Amino acid sequence: QVQLVESGGGLAQAWGSLRLSCAASGVVFSINAMGWYRQAPGKQRELVAAITRGASTNYADSVKGRFTISRDNAKNTLYLQMNSLKPEDTAVYYCHTLSSGYWGQGTQVTVYS
């Protein structure tokens, strides 16, 4: 059974930082391209950042230079380091296996000014 469990969300002040983690089990993590998505109230879910199994990355324009996606294949864990947070980053953040279509349950990130 595939499980993706996000953690690290919470409340942060604008210009602060948070680090999200996604622990994967039941899937061969190392061969999967992985992504972080987010969904704000009343908006569609959007891709925030993605990383291939070879560790190539790409980012949404809105987070470039502020967020960093990374992976630790030995720990089956995906990360999203979020710096210089803005109130518009407030959303539920989801971990996703791009290669096989699984989703985590999401973790709430709320940024206040």
Topology (SSEs and partners):
Elements: E1 3-7, E2 10-13, E3 18-25, E4 34-39, E5 46-51, E6 57-59, E7 67-72, E8 77-82, E9 91-97, E10 107-112
- Across the major sheet, the strand order is 2-10-9-4-5-6
Global geometry: globular
The assigned structural class equals mainly beta
Q: H/E order of the elements?
A: EEEEEEEEEE
> What is the helical fraction, as a range of percent?
under 10%
Tally of separate helices:
0
Query: What's the total count of β strands?
Result: 10
Radius of gyration: 13 Å
Overall mean pLDDT stands at 96
Describe the structure.
By secondary structure, the protein is mostly beta strands. Helix content is about 0%, strand content about 50%. It has strands at about 5, 10-15, 20-25, 35-40, 45-50, 55-60, 65-70, 75-80, 90-95, 105-110. It has a six-stranded mixed β-sheet with strand order 2-10-9-4-5-6, with no helix packed on it. A four-stranded antiparallel β-sheet has the order 1-3-8-7, with no helix packed on it. A hairpin with a 6-residue loop joins strand 4 (about 35-40) and strand 5 (about 45-50). It is globular, with a radius of gyration of 13 Å. The protein starts with a strand and ends with a strand. The model has no long low-confidence stretch (mean pLDDT about 95).
